[in-house]
UniProtKB/TrEMBL annotation:
Protein name according to UniProt: ATP-binding protein, ABC-type oligopeptide transporter
Record has Iron as a keyword: no
Transmembrane regions listed in the UniProt entry: none
Keywords from the named record: ATP-binding, Cell membrane, Membrane, Nucleotide-binding, Transport
PROSITE patterns on file: ABC_TRANSPORTER_2
Topology of the protein relative to the lipid bilayer: Peripheral membrane protein
Signal peptide: none
GO molecular function, one term: ATP binding
Subcellular compartments: Cell inner membrane
InterPro entries for this protein: AAA+_ATPase, ABC_Ni/Peptide_Import, ABC_transporter-like_ATP-bd, Oligopep_ABC_C, P-loop_NTPase
Pfam families referenced in this protein's UniProt entry, alphabetically: ABC_tran, oligo_HPY
Length: 343
């Protein structure tokens, strides 16, 4: 069978933001593609450039940010030069976004039903009653009890979990080809988190929508994603199928993220998890060596000899690291020594 053409194809995505004394380079040339029916997770700590990548794909970057990209194609249409007007037409219709905090996307002054009808009217010729029917249908689909009542309520009358369900319903209104969910459950408590993720997964599988799921929590992606893209310091440092990356993390940063996932039955309550000492550095200038060097327990001379290329370790599993892909050259005690040295 031939490969399905991707819904989204992004190559060489860069974002630069001039600040008072310098130019930040929070996104340094990202490639991402999403096929029909595929879920791609973008994973990395806070500050790695995940949200700016999402906003760039949505045409929603802050005004002062400068976007350059070899290519942003949505179902064959080139968007790298699209006008603000074109973006407004696409957003909510062919691509939709779900944010971490629904209160930033919902208008506190309007009833849920009116906000949903407004989105529909922007993109489709629909009557009032048809808009209401479609809204009800979607509120039901995302598991909201008494949807008729909810339509007449204001966002603050809903719990955080219900608001996030409303956001998902809104994203689905015009049957988009691609949804970008940026930390959609981070603000919710653990039980609700699991429910919302399951809902997103079920809807994604049922509709065949392409989904980009952004999270700082690698533990969230197992069972959700087909592929994982690990971002560090504005670059892709590892990418591959979910199974490959979780079973055989190749970049030390991914290893570090995995050490931070609690293991049910093994991690005791209150126990400190393995974490990665240090912070994501501020991104300016050109990289002249590995961006993860300062925090890497395996760092050695070759890591400083120049910027590290992203290479294929076999079967499309990509790594941006000089270590051998077979796991040799990694001392299992290195992480422990490093966290002891930093505490
Ligand atoms: N409007 C902005 N002005 C200046 N710096 C910004 C702006 N937005 C984001 N940044 C910086 O860019 C980096 C990446 O941000 P972001 O994409 O939000 O990271 P993530 O979503 O992975 O946490 C961060 O260091 C952040 O401080
Ligand atoms: Mg973010």
């Amino acid at each position: 069978m031939s490969m399905t053409a991707p819904i989204l194809e992004v190559t060489g995505l860069k974002v630069e933001i001039p600040v008072r004394d310098t130019v930040l380079r929070p996104v340094r040339g990202i490639d991402i593609s999403v096929a029909k029916g595929e879920t791609v997770a973008i994973v990395g700590e806070s500050g790695c450039g995940k949200s700016l990548t999402a906003l760039a794909i949505m045409g929603l970057l802050p005004r002062q940010a400068k976007l350059t990209s070899e290519r942003i194609d949505l179902n064959g249409e080139s968007l790298s030069e699209a006008s603000p007007r074109r973006w407004r037409k696409l957003r909510g219709d062919r691509i939709a976004m779900i944010f971490q905090d629904p209160m930033t996307a919902l208008d506190p002054c309007y009833r849920i039903g009116d906000q949903m009808a407004e989105i529909l009217k922007q993109h489709r010729k629909v009557s009032r009653s048809a808009a209401r029917e479609r809204s009800l249908e979607l509120l039901r689909k995302v598991g909201i009890p008494s949807p008729e009542e909810r339509l007449n309520q204001y966002p603050h009358q809903l719990s955080g979990g219900l608001r996030q369900r409303v956001m998902i319903a809104m994203a689905l209104l015009c049957e988009p080809e691609l949804i970008i969910a940026d930390e959609p459950t981070t603000a919710l408590d653990v039980t609700i988190q699991a429910q919302i993720l399951r809902l997103l997964r079920d809807i994604q599988r049922e509709t065949g929508i392409g989904l980009i799921l952004i999270t700082h929590d690698l533990g969230v992606v197992a069972g959700m994603a087909d592929r994982i893209v690990v971002m560090y310091g504005g670059e892709v440092v590892e990418a591959g199928t979910c199974d490959d990356v979780l079973a055989r993390p190749l970049h030390p940063y991914t290893e570090g993220l995995m050490r931070s996932i609690p293991v049910p039955g093994e991690t005791r309550r209150g126990e400190t998890l393995g974490f990665i000492p240090g912070v994501v550095p501020r991104q300016t200038g050109d990289l002249t060596r590995c961006g993860f060097l300062e925090r890497c327990p395996y760092a050695h001379a070759p890591c400083a000899e120049g910027p590290i290329a992203l290479r294929d370790a076999g079967d499309g599993h990509l790594m941006r690291c000089v270590l051998p892909a077979d796991g040799s050259g990694r001392d299992p005690e290195a992480w422990t020594r490093q966290s002891e040295a930093s505490s």
